[in-house]
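User: Second chain of the day. Same drill as before.
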Amino acid sequence: MSMDSKANDPMLSKLESVCSDLKSLLQTSVSMETSLGKMDKKFDDIQETLTMASKRVAPLQSLSIATKALDTRINRAVSPALALLDSFKHSEALQGKLLELSSKLSNCKSPKKRAKALIKYVDCVDKLNLAINSVSQEGEPAIQKLQEVVEFLSRTKATDQYREHRLRDTLVTLKALYETEVDAMRFDGLLDEALLNLQDEYESILQQLRHRNLGEAADDSPDEMVASDLGSESEVEVLRRISQTLAANDCLDICIDIFVKVRYRRAAKALMRLNPDYLRNYTPEEIDEMEWESLETSITLWIQHFELAVKTVFVSEKNLCNKVLGNIMDGVIWSECFVKIADKIMAVFFRFGEGVARSNKEPQKLFKLLDMFDSLEKLKIEFAEMFEGEAGADICSRFRELEKLLVHTSTKVFWEFGLKIEGNQDGLPPPQDGSVPKLVRYAINYLKYLATDAYRTSMAKALRTEQIWKAGILSKPETDENLLKDAISNVMEALQRNVESKRSRYKDKVLPYVFAMNTYWYIYMRTRNTELGKILGEKYMKKNYKVVAEESAYLYQKQAWGALVRLLDKEETGRLNKEGIGVPLRGKVEAFMKGFDEISVRHRSSYNIPDVDLRGQIKEATINLVVPAYTEFLNTYSSVLQEKSYRSPQSIEELLGQIFDGSDRTGDRKLAVSRRDPKDRSEGRNFVSAERSSDMKDFRRILSTT
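Assistant: Same format as last time:
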């Protein structure tokens, strides 16, 4: 191939160009390899240098890490110590403020300003207590940590001796300060003095909280008795705050002792204004020695004062306890404090009531016992709410025991009343004039009073309660009406047996009938149209008393006047010889007149029919029996009896009227007047007239002697 053809061939040109580039690239690679060799040698030199530097720096790095760890450990120990010192400074500042507030408090005379100053004083005491508690709680951990650091430095020699010595001196000083100052601040310092001041203020404020005049409350009806609030809101708030502060400073026992002691005295003093001197006599023996009028008054006052104490004094004291102590120990302590206040006072009331219930079972005590029982029944729900919970269990138990004792005693007094009547224990003979005995008058008035609204319900409830106790809760007791009716019927039957016993002791033939007539008529007339009559029933009263009185009246007339009228019997006169009839007829008339005079004398001296209505009926019946027979006899034999004058029928009728009208008998007039006395028919507490009051006293004396 020619040159020109090579030069013109493009492929060859490209190959030459590529060959030239490859040569250049190879030369560059050789040059780069030489440079990389030099760089590798330099890196080896640097690595060697770094290795040597690292070996030289490693001890410094360990020292730096150890220094940081030591710094952290020291800071952990010093920081609590610094906080402890700050707490000491804070408590010292609070003590200064407490002294300032104490000075201001002593200069406060106004109650409102003093209450506000006391609140600030209590706040400062609380803050001081918190500060001292903070010192107490932070002290031991701070000292412990500081001691650990000192021991560590001493063991590891991590610092020089100078710094270690200073840290050890700081530890000793802080430990001594803590051990001496904390106890001093808590028990011997201003906090202790402040707590003593608060106790004095606490007692002083409690002393100032007084009950309103109970003498005025005693005049109110039971429904109007309202308890008053003790103290203003500010006073109660101060007491509440002081109670919480004392409790927080381990003075809860002292707080409770002060509260109970002061409030008991205040409550007792409030009740002492009512002059309850009767409470000093409380044993059954002392009760038995009291005069009845004095005992009756004492029981009335006991009922009134007991109710007043529960509804006013104790309500106020309970509210105060709740407001002042209600937030302490989750509200557990205040109810116990209230029970402690009320317990001693209630014990005095209970022992008097128990003494009355255990004293002699005299009949007249029944009504006062029922009054006591009724008052407890009315207070039962309120009393249970007042002393609810475990704290008041003992007082509630004693309340129930007293009520149970009153129920038992009331029923026993009533049953024994019937037994005494039946046993004729009045020790007196039957009335010599056949009048109504005092025992009967007393018993009827007694039962009439028992049957009134004031006592009927209470007596029935007591009888039902006693029956349930004896028969068991599951038994089915009779209704109150039937229980009371049966109980009263038993007494009435005992009274009837007593009357029959006295009736049999008369030696005179007429007096038993006069006595029975007077007595049964009295019972019937005084009982009908009364609550007692309604309980017993009209049928019962007629059968047992009215019919018996009418039969006795008939037998009285037959025994007293029948023999006299038989002297004038025409059948006996018809059998006489007509020729000699004058002498016997005159003898009959004279015998009639003599018997009439004798009967008249006995009626005037020995027979007494005090009831005006009964006496009028007997007079009318006697006139109808005697006068017609005498008139007929005179008219029949007038021709034979003309030789001598005899009393006319009108004269006989007038004499009979004088016998029964009792115009010359002072006693009859008194009876007639007393019967018409409206007081004698009244129902309620004033039912006893002067005559009945005397009867009750006599019967009371008789029963006491037997």
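The two ends are 185 Å apart (CA to CA).

User: Great, on to the next one.
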